[in-house]
Design a protein that fits this description.
Largest sheet: 6 strands, mixed
CATH class of the largest domain: Mainly Beta
GO cellular component, one term: plasma membrane
Shape: elongated
CATH topology of the largest domain: Immunoglobulin-like
Strand content: 35-45%
Membrane topology: Single-pass membrane protein
Number of domains: 2
Helix content: 25-40%
Distance between the termini: 142 Å
Order of helices and strands: HHEEEEEEEEEEEEEEEH
Keywords: Cell membrane, Disulfide bond, Glycoprotein, Immunoglobulin domain, Membrane, Repeat, Signal, Transmembrane, Transmembrane helix
Number of strands: 15
Protein name: Ig-like domain-containing protein
CATH architecture of the largest domain: Sandwich
Number of helices: 3
CATH superfamily of the largest domain: Immunoglobulins
Oligomer: single chain
Organism: Vombatus ursinus (Common wombat)
């Protein structure tokens, strides 16, 4: 087992019990331990992999700005940003834990798959996980609708249809706050995204995009948002049972009402017959 692995394992024993508060000295000790483990790995030539993020996000409207932030080792001497579609790279000398790479205007020439890495002494880290920088607003926005309805009960099926005025080879469905968008490859003016057995987790705001297969990082403008509302099926059953019971109760009341009216008319007829004077009999001499 390496020294860094042992140190990380030992530090885990300092974790506080649930519900307790970590003291400042313990927080400092954990921070120093993390830094020390990374320093040991740097001496061994295995630097931790950096992370690459885009702010305000990876979907940027045409000609708007974005900042790519690479976060790595505190003792890094240089950060490098690479675009896989190009042989060029950008180096930023720094002694900090992160470096910023601003892009003032996103165009087709700046979109693509990016990675970053950093240098410590004579060692370069492994590249970060790829980040896809996408430009939106390159084509007219499509429309997004829910079939049969944007309000469904849990357990039901729903289809989200992305409709364009032109034919495209790819369509993308993106959920606000979702991890990864969904792709459909189909040459058509529309694409159907089927959600089978909807759960509460499927609820939220959706948008869709259209694009061509030869320009994967140039998307249309986003559709207007569609709010998918998922209702609890158990409440539906409960409401249905109540409606059935109310309907039966109403039917019973209606029958009782009819019987009461008939009884009243029958009683009234008997009373009128009893009160009617008998015909007089003629006296015969």
């Amino acid at each position: 087992m390496s020294q860094s692995a042992c140190l990380t394992s030992d530090l885990s024993s300092f974790s506080p019990e649930p519900g307790t508060t970590m003291s400042p000295s313990l927080i400092t000790l954990l921070g120093v331990g993390l830094w020390l483990s990374q320093w040991i790995r740097a001496q061994e030539g295995t630097l931790p992999r950096p992370t690459l993020q885009a702010e305000p996000g990876r979907l940027i409207p045409h000609k708007k700005s974005v900042t790519l932030r690479c976060r790595g080792f505190p003792g890094a001497e240089m950060y490098r940003l690479r675009r896989e579609e190009s042989s060029q790279h950008i180096d930023v000398p720094t002694s900090g834990r992160e470096a910023e790479f601003p892009i003032s205007s996103v165009t087709p020439d700046t979109t693509g798959k990016y990675r970053c890495l950093y240098k410590n002494q004579s060692h370069w880290s492994e590249p970060s996980e790829p980040l896809d920088l996408v430009m939106t607003g390159w084509y007219d926005k499509p429309s997004l609708s829910a079939l049969p309805s944007p309000e469904v009960f849990s357990g039901e099926n729903v289809t989200l249809r992305c409709q364009s005025q032109q034919w495209y080879e790819k369509y993308v469905l993106d959920k606000e706050g979702g991890a990864n968008p969904s792709y459909i490859q189909v040459t058509s003016p529309f694409a159907d995204f089927h959600i089978i057995e909807v759960t509460a987790a499927h609820g939220g705001s959706y948008r869709c995009y259209s694009l061509h297969s030869d320009t994967l990082y140039e998307w249309s403008a986003p559709s207007d948002p569609l709010e998918l509302r998922v209702r609890d099926a158990s409440r539906q059953d409960y409401t249905g049972g109540n409606l059935i019971r109310l309907g039966l109760a109403g039917l019973v009341l209606l029958i009782l009402g009819v019987l009461l009216v008939e009884a009243w008319h029958s009683q009234r007829g008997h009373l009128e017959a009893a009160q009617k004077p008998l015909p007089r009999q003629s006296n015969q001499a």
